[in-house]
Amino acid sequence: MWLRAGNWEAAAQAVATIESWRRKPAPLAWMAEARLHLLGLRATWPLLAELGWLSPALLEDIVQRSPDPLLPKLMRSFEANFDASSIYLNQVLARAEVDSGYKPARKLWARTRNGHYLPNPAMQLRRGDGWQPVYEALKLDWVDRGTGTDDTFRTRPALAVARASERMAGRRARVVLSAEA
Question: Judging by beta carbons within 10 Å of its beta carbon (0-12, 13-18, 19+), is residue 15 exposed, middle or buried?
């Protein structure tokens, strides 16, 4: 109501009384819009970034009503130049790498090179009442026969898995040796 009336100070005060308003998309949007009018774009930027993470649709609504003409320009530039899929996916995969120090790392992926991941060769998948190595379940030998070449730029999947396994075995051996010392 205060926002529609253009009473930005009252709107900000009302939102501030809402418990955990920063974690709820609607109140966060209300506060961001009120502060955008009261304090300007620079001071409101952190709230707008949080809102963009929690609710891109609500951020877009605020951008369209922004009193600062720079905000819509920044948004258009961001949308034109941002490749969300690779950035976010690489972060998720990196946290689940075999060598990741992230806690709790799931140790699901072995990175063969930057941006290239394979399932962890040590992973076991449940099959019926027992467990089966991941690459046996994925029929790696069958996949390997149908993909890759002898060209150095197109490594066969089985070779990439073997290299990753050797690299991981070497790291485990170093960890055991350093633990014994």
Answer: buried
